[in-house]
Amino acid sequence: MGPPAGSGESLLPSFSIPSQYAGPHGPPMFNSPPRPPQPDYHVQQPRVPPNFAEIPLAPHSPAQLADHGLSGLSGVGIHGVTEEDFDAYCLSASAPFLLFSAQKVFNERKPMNTASLGFGALVCPGREIEPSLPVIVHEPYRCQNCGAYVNQHCTIAPRTGFWSCTFCNKSNESNGEYRAPRVEDLRNWPELATSVVNYVDSGTRRPGFVSVSDSSMTAPIMLLIDDSLDVEHLTQLQGSLHTFLDSLSPATRIGIVTYGRTVSVFDLSESTVAAADVLPGDSSLSHELKQMLIYGTGVYLAPIHVCLSEARSIVSALRPYRGCLPEAKRERCLGTAVEVVLALIQGPATELPVNTSKRSGGRSRVLVCVGGPTTLGPGSLPCSTTHMNYAYMEENAIKHMGYLGQEARRLDIALDILCAGTCPVRIPTLQPLASASGGLLVLHDDFGEVYCTNLQRAVRRSTGFGGLLEIRCSDDVVVTRVIGPGEEPRGDSGVGQFRNDTSTAVRLLSVEDCQAFAITMELEDDIEESHVYFQIVARYTSVHQAEVTRVVTVRLPTTDSISDYLHSVDDEVAAVLIAKRTVLEAKTTRDVADMRASVDERVKDIAAKFGSYIAKSKLRAFPSSLSRLPELLFHLKRGPLLGSIIGHEDERAVYRNLYLQAGFDLSLRMMAPRLLMHREAGTFEELPAHDVAMQSDAVIVLDHGIDVFIWTGLRVVADEARNAEAQAACHILAQELTEQRFPAPRMLSFKEASSQARYLQSRLIPAHKDPPYEQEARFPQLRVLTVEQRARLKSSFVPTDDLSFCEWMRSLKLNV
């Protein structure tokens, strides 16, 4: 959380970079033609804009109109559109990309900057939606003073085309672009009629542009496979890799490399036998070996429609580990293997200077299949953590893996590390490799179905690469922190080219569909204006090599009423922002304990600042307009992010890093699970995530982000027909809930009283400890149970020291 306004500390935003990147969608249907379709960018004539007549016009009050004959796009009441209606439309249109913790801004600095509640937004710059956004192919018009983009809230002079900036009020030319006979005609320009637009430059107007085949422009996918696996794990992995290869688009270029004691680079031109060039793994790749590899006679990258049979033969030819060493002590030279893969993808461009790189047609991706720790060559660790120099060697390994990740990002290559099995893989050394490249690290129980699904979804989650995010706010609003997969921009990013540009810029490590940045903001001074403006701009190169500039512009009304402000707070968005700030600080076991305590203090402080005392009671009332917020934070405190549900610290670190970059939907589910109970005819009822839902005659589904559980009561198990119907409906529901999710969740199905039932019960609030009237108030479904049924339900739970939500609130001296 940034320093409070008015303190002596700097208000420049701090960039918090998680070491994990995820959040994409499930794979779409795979196309059968040998070439992926290119987007059709229709050239828009500047003077004959498309008709956006169905979009409401942006109203402006007369006080906003400037000189040069500027006029608002419509006055209040014209065409039946009020300011409130238009602002509501803009917020709705921008919701897939921008979510605020409150729909209004309190105009006094001190209450607005209350640290326990905070104000901010979740930004999803690479989100793709249907129907697609308006596409504009001319260069965007920007304010020559502050760099802001023209938008639907600007005032326009229809006779001259001049427009006034919403952020600095300076007048700008449009070279006659926005000249129109009537004010109403201005809505035919999409950038003046809606809150989100895409400016696209497909490159066809660039001097010297040369069209090339889709196959040559397709970014390659490299499979980097651990060849020190046991028979069981290798068999599972082979099945997953066969399914993965069959699912790829025919034009996709692939390469296959294995690593163990040596690095084997397979030749995809050999159809009769699996042939590979073998390189030593105990040291970095020498210049001579690089040249031999790059300029050799082997074909190491080829389109899948040309080499599918060869690739399948190579996967089938993989053999299990034949030595006698345990998994943790087997030789694995991952560092050297990554160097080899980077050299293969870069190709002859390795001869170019360090500050240049060859574009391979987009963002390449390396899928690293890991079954154990790196124990040989650069970036390796001793087999035992008790080694006398382990700490020193681990520090060097982390630095080296981070360097390899940075090199990969420089070449527009993302490394996704997908681990599986029970052998420790030394997460602290692998995390920098994935995070620095813009990839992610995911843990799996085995190399089976979920692993295969994540292989498929990993190659499809990218929206683009080479991204830059800009955040602009009105003068009295300042960005204090940015949490997400980004870093401060480099000097050549084009930031700061405008004299009075006060925007906050973030260099995107990756551009993905379900990725989000948490932005926290504060007021520098009290606000006198009636509205506050926000503009989010994402500039990146799409997967089709088009330069995209996505502009999202919204405004929020200000208010001088605390009640109005609290009623405008979105409990779920506010909770996710709080959770991301809290999880960011939970780096060690001790930090986690401190953050759990901070959740208590945060809830008490919100009640102290915005709640009220209850007459004749020692309890304080929590604000009724924020009634859902405490329960969401209670889930945060006791769930996998801060609680003790996940056993090993490495697993918790991976889970938290996934959370820090996840989009809103996945972030919410990872923090607070969603519980659905099966009803008749395949329907489901959503209920609070309380353990009193575990009734013997019920079947429930619990969605907890990257885990989905299906629990079946014993009475349902006894009825075979009912059980089969319920199980089929629950599995279909689970697939529908998670088909767009990355990483794909682990799904477990079990029955009442089984050992695995603890996975579900530990994630539910122990409401069985509450008195009946409190149970019914928060879980009304219990009212249909008889006294005997409720007594039997309560007796089915094992006594624990865990507090229920009501008990927790009372321990904080707060009323539920």
Describe the structure.
With 816 residues, the protein is an alpha/beta fold. Mean pLDDT is 85; it is low at 1-69, 74-79, 204-217 and 354-361. β6 (155-156) and β7 form a beta hairpin. The protein folds into three domains: 83-204 and 463-569, Sandwich (Immunoglobulin-like), CATH 2.60.40.1670; 221-350 and 359-447, von Willebrand factor, type A domain (Rossmann fold, 3-Layer(aba) Sandwich); 586-812, Severin, CATH 3.40.20.10. α12 (571-585) packs parallel to α14. It is globular and about 80 Å long. It is built from 22 helices and 33 strands.
Characteristics of this structure?
alpha/beta, globular, Severin, eight-stranded mixed beta sheet, Immunoglobulin-like, disordered N terminus, 816 residues, 29% helix, Rossmann fold
Brief summary of the model shown:
This protein has 816 residues and is of the alpha/beta class. The chain is built from 22 helices and 33 strands. It is globular.
CA radius of gyration is: 28 Å
CATH class of the largest domain: Mainly Beta
Mean pLDDT: 85
CATH architecture of the largest domain: Sandwich
Number of domains: 3
Indicate the percent of residues in helices.
25-40%
* General shape: globular
Largest sheet: 9 strands, mixed
Quote the CATH topology of the largest domain: Immunoglobulin-like
CATH superfamily of the largest domain: beta-sandwich domain of Sec23/24
Distance between the termini: 28 Å
**Strand percent estimate:** 15-25%
Low-confidence spans:
1-69, 74-79, 204-217, 354-361
Going by helix content, strand content and strand pairing, the class is alpha/beta
Protein name: Protein transport protein SEC23
Family: Belongs to the SEC23/SEC24 family. SEC23 subfamily.
Domain Sec23/Sec24 helical: 570-668
Region (Disordered): 1-43
